[in-house]
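Handout, tutorial session.
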Amino acid sequence: MQRPTQRVPLLVLCVAALCAAFLAQTGHAQTGKTITIRILDGKTARPIAATSFLVRINHQQTVHADWVLQNEDRSGKLTVPGDAVVVSIRAAYDSSMQMYVNCDAAEEKQNPQEHWYSVSTILASGVVAPNGCSNMKETAQPGEFVFFVRKANFRERTQDDWSF
């Protein structure tokens, strides 16, 4: 049988281990870089709502749907880990069942490619992705990433290729 004085250090050790595990899981938010995301309609350049954002970093296949906190003005705050060099962002609509088509790939109709943007450039001067959907333009502030989208057409919605 253990004495009560022996249980206290064991309890403190267990609490410390749980705290360390929690901080390891949420560590990217504390040491990360914050980027403001604005999503605009490719034809009108008006802000539109997304039901979720899908984020990839450093050409990795892992999709992070929980890194963006959406604001009431339809923008979002993206926190990427400190080691993020490039970022690719897509947005979903219709309760996350449909993906917007990014207008930076609008001219690549047969084989659209993901476009990657430098995190350091976004933070230093801001980045506006090309708008291949129309001639609408926009400006970005330092720390801001602006991209244009359109809803998927019938052919795009029915394609078997759902890869990100």
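The second record follows below. Compare its token runs with those of the first.
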Amino acid sequence: MGQARAWTGWACSLLGAVGALVVLGAQAPVTTTPGARQKGAFGQFTDRAQWQMPIRVMDEIGVKPGMTVADVGAGDGWFTFYLADRVGPSGRVIAEDIDAKALEAVRERCAREKVSNVSVLVGGTEDPKLPAGAVDVALMVNVLSALGNARNFLGNLAKSLKPDGRLVVIDWNPGKLYPQMAEQETKAALSQTLRQLQDAGFEVVKTLDFLPAQTMWICKLPRGGAIDPAEAMERRRRVGPAEATRGPCISLGVPSGLPPEREGVERGV
């Protein structure tokens, strides 16, 4: 994510705890001396591709040639060009951000590398301004926790999805960044993310925890498409939190560790 939209809720507390590790509004921890080992969840990694695992992420969320994918909060396009490689010349990637300067870096790289399947879009603080009904997958990496009004933003984003489109949210997991954090606090933070998605009318169909520092939620809209966020909140109020979060694929527990086989550096950027 380029320029931060607005920090709110548990993200403010996480920012204070993470301190120098996380740059406000950025998708990645602060840059360190090349080759230097980082602390905490990043101690064994020297390259973002090692801990972000973009190839596996795209495999898990089903990004395929010919798709239209929105990189929401794209910043300078770190994930954008992985997506562009995957969707191929018959597909399209929309790099969205509120930071026009960061998106200029995307334009420059597209021109330099002759990438023709990426377009840039300057969005708003509460509306990504994506084309209606055009997106197969909307990817938000370290963006949801930085939104000032997640319900409005996600409600507007929902209008851009095709009937079978998916929203994929990847965000920092405080328990992974700081294992000493109380389990109850970690669960509260993850539960807040789940509530934000449900309040915007999304159904979380799968939660994945293979990333060393983040959690991933794969979401879809209910049959019939986007619903009014106020209606979604009222439904959750009626059925109660236990029923609203019920589902065979949802897990809010903190993972025990890394996957059995850690991905290596998949591509230099």
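Points raised in discussion: Residues 21 and 29 are 5 Å apart (CA to CA).
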